C-alpha cells in the first residue's frame, strides 16, 4: 500500500485523514505542486519549491516547511514507495479552522494542512504519446484572473479535459481575447519557420517550471524564442506545436480543432526539445 504524508506523519493511504472543515475542501483555499521523478530522482525540485513559496506568499499563507524539509519529505516518499518514474504531488491548504467561514482564519491559530503523495508512472519518459502527438480542441478560457498562482481550483481544467474527451481529443487549449493562454494543465507553444512562440508570463498563465527550463535549453541550442501571445489561427497554420508540463515534459501537438499540423506527426523542434529536456533534467535531478 502507498505511504502518504500528512502534517508530519508518514501513513498508509487508508489511514491518512484531513478534516471536513479543511479550507482546501470547502473553498479550494490551497496551492499545489507536481514534481516528476526519473531514475528515482526529483526533476526541477528547486523550481517547484520556489514557485510554491511564491504561490503561498500571493495568498498570504506562510510556508510551513522550508526547502530542505520539503526535499527530505519528497525523497522519503519516493524511497518508501519505491518510485523510479512518476510524480510527487504536494498540496498545502490554509488548514482547518474548525468551522466554515469565508474570512481567512488567524494564521497563528490555524496551521496549514500539508499533504504529499506519490504516483508511480512507469514509462513516463518513454511515453507512446510523444511518438504520436496530441490532438487538442480550443475552448474559452473562463478561469479566474490569477492563474499564475498554482491553486487547487481545477474544476474548469477538469471540464476542459472532459470536453476534449467528448470531442475525441486529448486536451484543450484555452483562448482569451483571441489569444491562446495555455493548455488545461500545461503551457502551449507553436513553431513557425523555426521560431518557437509561447505566451509571455503574466497573471493569465501559470509560470511553468518546465517552460522555464525548456526555453533556457532552446536558447542555449541557438533556437529563436518569441514570448508573446499567439492567436488560434496562427496556431492552426503553424509548422508544429507542443505543450510542456512536469508530467508531460515536452509533448508534441499534431492537431488543433480540425486542423492537422504539418504532416500530422510530431515535428523536429518538439522532438529535439523533448530529447534535450529529458537528458539535461536527468543530469540535474536530485
Ligand atoms: N500542471 N499550466 C497549467 C494550467 C498547469 O496546471 C501546469 C502544470 C502547467 C505546467 O507547469 P509545470 O511545467 O510547472 O508543470 C501550466 C500540473 C502538472 C498538474 O496540474 O498536474
Structural commentary:
There is one protein chain. The chain has 286 residues and is an alpha+beta fold. The protein has two domains: 3-120, Aminotransferase class 4, branched-chain amino acid transferase, N-terminal domain (D-amino Acid Aminotransferase, Chain A, domain 1, 2-Layer Sandwich); 129-284, D-amino Acid Aminotransferase, subunit A, domain 2 (D-amino Acid Aminotransferase, Chain A, domain 2, Alpha-Beta Barrel), CATH 3.20.10. The chain contains eight helices and 15 strands. It has helices spanning 23-27, 45-58, 67-80, 129-132, 155-166, 209-220, 232-236, 268-284, and strands at residues 3-6, 9-12, 30-38, 41-42, 86-93, 113-120, 134-140, 171-176, 179-183, 187-192, 195-198, 225-227, 240-245, 249-256, 259-260. Strands 7, 8, 9, 10, 11, 12, 13, 14 and 15 form a nine-stranded mixed β-sheet that branches. The protein has a six-stranded antiparallel β-sheet with strand order 2-1-6-5-3-4. Helix 6 packs across helix 8 (268-284). The mean pLDDT is 98. The site of N-(5'-phosphopyridoxyl)-D-alanine has 14 residues, from helix 6 and strand 13.
- Find the count of extended strands (DSSP E, 2+ residues): 15
Q: State Rg.
A: 19 Å
CATH homology-level superfamily of the largest domain: D-amino Acid Aminotransferase, subunit A, domain 2
Oligomer: single chain
Largest sheet: 9 strands, mixed
Give the averaged pLDDT, no decimals. 98
User: How would you classify the helix and strand content by structural class?
Assistant: alpha+beta
If you consult CATH, what is the topology of the largest domain? Answer: D-amino Acid Aminotransferase, Chain A, domain 2
Mind telling me the CATH class of the largest domain? Alpha Beta
The fraction of residues in strands falls at: 25-35%
Low-confidence stretches: none
The set of bound ligands, ions and cofactors reads:
N-(5'-phosphopyridoxyl)-D-alanine
The portion of residues assigned to helices is 25-40%
Helix/strand order, N-terminal first: EEHEEHHEEHEHEEEEHEHEEEH
Shape-level CATH architecture of the largest domain: Alpha-Beta Barrel
- Please give the count of helices: 8
Amino acid at each position: 500500500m502507498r505511504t502518504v504524508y500528512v502534517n508530519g506523519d508518514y501513513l498508509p493511504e487508508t489511514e491518512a485523514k484531513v478534516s471536513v472543515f479543511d479550507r482546501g475542501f470547502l473553498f479550494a483555499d490551497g496551492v499545489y505542486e507536481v514534481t516528476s521523478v526519473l531514475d528515482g530522482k526529483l526533476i526541477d525540485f528547486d523550481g517547484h519549491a520556489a514557485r510554491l513559496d511564491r504561490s503561498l506568499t500571493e495568498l498570504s499563507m506562510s510556508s510551513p516547511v522550508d526547502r530542505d524539509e520539503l526535499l527530505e519529505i519528497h525523497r522519503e516518499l519516493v524511497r518508501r514507495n519505491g518510485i523510479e518514474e512518476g510524480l510527487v504531488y504536494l498540496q498545502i491548504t490554509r488548514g482547518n479552522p474548525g468551522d466554515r467561514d469565508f474570512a481567512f482564519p488567524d494564521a497563528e491559530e490555524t496551521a496549514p494542512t500539508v499533504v504529499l503523495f506519490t504516483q508511480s508512472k512507469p514509462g513516463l519518459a518513454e511515453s507512446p504519446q510523444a511518438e504520436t502527438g496530441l490532438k487538442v480542441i480550443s475552448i474559452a478560457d473562463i478561469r479566474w484572473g490569477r492563474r499564475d498562482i498554482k491553486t487547487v481550483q481545477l474544476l474548469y481544467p477538469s471540464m476542459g479535459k472532459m470536453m476534449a474527451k467528448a470531442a475525441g481529443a486529448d486536451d484543450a487549449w484555452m483562448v482569451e481575447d483571441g489569444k491562446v493562454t495555455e493548455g488545461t494543465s500545461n503551457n502551449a507553444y507553436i513553431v513557425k519557420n523555426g521560431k518557437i512562440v509561447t505566451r509571455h508570463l503574466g497573471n493569465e498563465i501559470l509560470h511553468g517550471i518546465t517552460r522555464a527550463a525548456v526555453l533556457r535549453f532552446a536558447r542555449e541550442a541557438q533556437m529563436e524564442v518569441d514570448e508573446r501571445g499567439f492567436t488560434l489561427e496562427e496556431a492552426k497554420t503553424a509548422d508544429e506545436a507542443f505543450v510542456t508540463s512536469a508530467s508531460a515534459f515536452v509533448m508534441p501537438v499534431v492537431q488543433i480543432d480540425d486542423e492537422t499540423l504539418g504532416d500530422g506527426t510530431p515535428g523536429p523542434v518538439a522532438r529535439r526539445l523533448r530529447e534535450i529536456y529529458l537528458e539535461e533534467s536527468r543530469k540535474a535531478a536530485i
